[in-house]
Specification:
Elements: H1 11-23, H2 28-54
């Protein structure tokens, strides 16, 4: 599995992450993973919605086609 290091995260953000993690009964690392997954999935859903609104399933400029569930 890949790893990600995020340097220079301010103390207030880290404290917020710790509070969210505690509220969800997760470690801060697990909470950060959950947040990243939620945001990236949301971006994919927004892309799909936009594509359906403009009548296509490709990105502008001949980008790659989505072929499966996200």
């Amino acid at each position: 599995m890949e790893s990600l290091t995020v340097p220079d995260v301010d103390a207030r953000t880290l404290e917020g992450l710790r509070i969210l993690a505690e509220a969800h009964h997760r470690t801060p690392e697990a909470e950060a993973r959950a947040i990243l997954v939620q945001v990236v999935r949301g971006l994919g859903e927004a892309d799909d919605l936009l594509a359906s609104m403009v009548g296509g399933d490709e990105t502008e400029g001949g980008g790659r086609r989505r072929t499966g569930p996200h």
